[in-house]
Write a structure and sequence with these properties.
alpha/beta; elongated; four-stranded antiparallel β-sheet; 32% helix; 16 strands
Length: 354
């Protein structure tokens, strides 16, 4: 099977195997395990975090990817798994089963050349990243010649990404009968006073350099004839590597204080910002091989955890970032093949010769 045929066959089977958050990840993990075993490697499966790692020897490059996807959702006009010309449609095509297929194809090529290589696949990147957090300090990650996270980058080299902080802000009021609202204190109205202050952070002039805040969910009250005594909003805050998490929380607290609204803040999810030098040898080599540019992004990946233990990290993979989480998600099959070729060349030139 030539590289193009291999990539197409692997990617189509990965895409046709559901791995949304409500799915048992056993099937997609078993499929990945079978592909790794076909390469002649002995995978180690971490059942507690539903992750898989494999290595042919020390000193090689580590290719990382996540096998899980976001829910399929509505609005699709193309049947998942449909191929039109060079394009494959389906949830996870770009984000990021294409990167996983490219990693497997690159590993296949490297093993044929007798070059050591390692693989690490997780199944919870879209939710908790517990797999990456647990394995980030492992010898597999720390001692890798480089760690390449295969998230969709349009084959550009990503050297920095913003951190993620999710907060739940709560305002509290006093309940009363709906016919006598003046006898209570409406927690929803209290929250409404603060929202314009938060909205200012949703329209950045320089998204990569500024803190942004997205209001993702709001909950308040129980029924129309009762004054709401509680209101909650879930906030997605993104911050550049130059900003500390404490500064983001201070920004939120200040917004509520300026509005004159007492509020409780609870942080319930965090992914650190990550940045590697754009002139680092591994970044320059990957850029040279891909004939592309080095960029920063507003979203977070598992590199955020790996970079704390191995500075030789980068994000690089097939697929367009704007295809993530949208209807009619798709990827160019030829781009996946080219991505695999670049990854193979990068690993061959990065791995120390013995």
């Amino acid at each position: 099977m030539n590289p193009s045929e291999y990539v197409r066959a692997v990617l189509m089977e990965l895409v046709n195997t559901p791995s949304t958050p409500d799915t048992d990840m056993s099937a997609i993990l078993a499929l990945a395990q079978a592909y790794v075993e076909e390469l002649g490697l002995r995978p180690v499966v971490h059942r507690d975090i539903m992750a898989l790692e494999a290595s042919s020897g020390a000193g090689g490059v580590l290719f990382n990817g996540h096998l899980d996807t976001v829910p399929v959702a509505s609005g699709w006009t193309k049947e998942p798994g449909r191929v039109e010309g060079d394009v494959l449609y389906g949830r996870g095509t770009a984000d990021m089963k294409a990167g996983c297929a490219a990693s497997l194809a690159a590993a296949r090529s490297l093993l044929d050349q007798g070059i050591p290589v390692s693989l690490l696949f997780t199944t919870d990147e879209e939710t908790t990243m517990k797999g990456a957090m647990k394995l980030a300090s492992s010898d597999l990650v720390r001692h890798a010649a480089a760690v390449v996270v295969g998230e969709p980058s349009s084959l550009r080299v990503i050297a920095s990404e913003k951190g993620i902080l999710w907060y739940r802000a709560t305002t509290r009021g006093r309940t009363a009968h709906g016919s006598l609202p003046h006898l209570g204190e409406n927690a929803v109205f209290l929250m409404a006073r603060a929202l314009p202050r938060l909205e200012l952070f949703s329209r950045p002039k320089a998204p990569l350099e500024e803190v942004t805040v997205n209001l993702g969910a709001i909950r308040g009250g129980s029924t129309p004839n009762v004054v709401a005594d509680r209101c909650e909003v879930d906030l997605d805050c993104r911050y550049p590597p130059s900003v500390r998490p404490e500064e983001v929380e201070a920004l939120l607290r200040n917004a509520f204080e300026e509005a004159g609204v007492p509020a409780e803040l609870e942080r319930f999810h965090e992914v650190p910002a990550a940045e590697v030098p754009r002139d680092a040898p591994h970044v320059l080599l990957l850029r040279q091989l891909a004939r592309t540019e080095v960029v920063g992004v507003t979203y977070g990946t598992e590199m955020a955890h790996y970079a704390k233990h191995n500075p030789r990290c980068a994000v690089f993979g097939p697929g367009a970032p704007e295809m993530c989480h949208v209807p009619d998600e798709r990827v160019s099959l030829s781009e996946v093949v080219r991505g695999a070729e670049i990854l193979s060349s990068f690993a061959a030139r990065t791995t120390p010769h013995t």
